[in-house]
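F.,

This is the one I mentioned.
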């Protein structure tokens, strides 16, 4: 028995129709059409986290109601660094500030990492709500090399990307640095590094771990200089370009 579709004529139907019509204009016919939302993995999920996922799932249902095959992808942003220790968790996690959340031990001891634990809480809520999804871990996707082509396209056009971000968001940062965060091979932090140079033949990015201000607090870098292999998931795109990738 199929799911009952409610809310015909809402913004969900409008978005679904706009996407379908755009794909036709571009001469593309992907099947299934994919609808994606990001799942934050750096803290406890809340109602807003669930709402983001449910809205995306609603667009997926609207596409199916228009006769197209569709799939909802729940993409966990679990390569993001820990910016602060959530209330109620041990202060000992402060030593891991700036590290990807999948590189941090699970303080509850029941999952492979802090990030995996936080993702599981939201996935459990989606299961209980009857939301059907394909789960994708950012950490796993980067390690499998799924973003290699997109990373190279972004780095090849880094100056243009920086100009677009400046024009659209009034942020100058990416006119000065590459929109890529290497993971420091020495201290394992991601937000304290600065990408210095793209090495296309080696598929690497040269970086220095110099430190960064995170949530109003300065996190000192270890001063290590190295090269991150982006084909092996040793870093990630900044979210502003990752969203497009």
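My design for it:
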């Amino acid at each position: 028995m199929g799911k009952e579709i409610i809310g015909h004529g809402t913004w969900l139907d409008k978005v679904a129709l706009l996407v379908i019509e755009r794909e036709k204009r571009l001469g593309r016919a992907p099947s299934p059409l994919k609808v994606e939302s990001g799942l934050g993995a750096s803290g406890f999920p809340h109602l807003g986290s669930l709402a983001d996922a449910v809205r995306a799932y609603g667009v997926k249902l609207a596409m199916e109601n228009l006769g197209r095959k569709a799939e909802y992808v729940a993409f966990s942003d679990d390569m993001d660094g820990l910016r602060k220790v959530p209330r109620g968790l041990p202060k000992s996690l402060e030593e891991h500030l700036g590290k990807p959340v999948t590189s941090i031990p699970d303080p509850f001891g029941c999952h492979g990492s802090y990030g995996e634990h936080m993702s599981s809480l939201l996935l459990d809520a989606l299961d209980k709500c009857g939301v059907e999804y394909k789960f994708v871990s950012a950490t796993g996707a980067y390690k499998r090399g799924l973003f290699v082509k997109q990373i190279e396209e972004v780095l090849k056009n880094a100056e243009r990307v920086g100009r677009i971000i400046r024009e659209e968001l009034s942020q100058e940062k990416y006119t000065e640095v590459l929109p890529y965060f290497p993971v420091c091979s020495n201290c394992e932090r991601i937000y304290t590094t600065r990408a210095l140079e793209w090495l296309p033949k080696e598929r690497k990015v040269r970086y220095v771990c110099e430190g960064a201000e995170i949530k109003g607090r300065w996190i000192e870098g270890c001063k290590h200089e190295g090269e991150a292999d982006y084909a092996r998931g040793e870093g990630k795109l900044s979210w502003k370009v990752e969203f497009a990738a």
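The two ends are 36 Å apart (CA to CA).

Talk soon.
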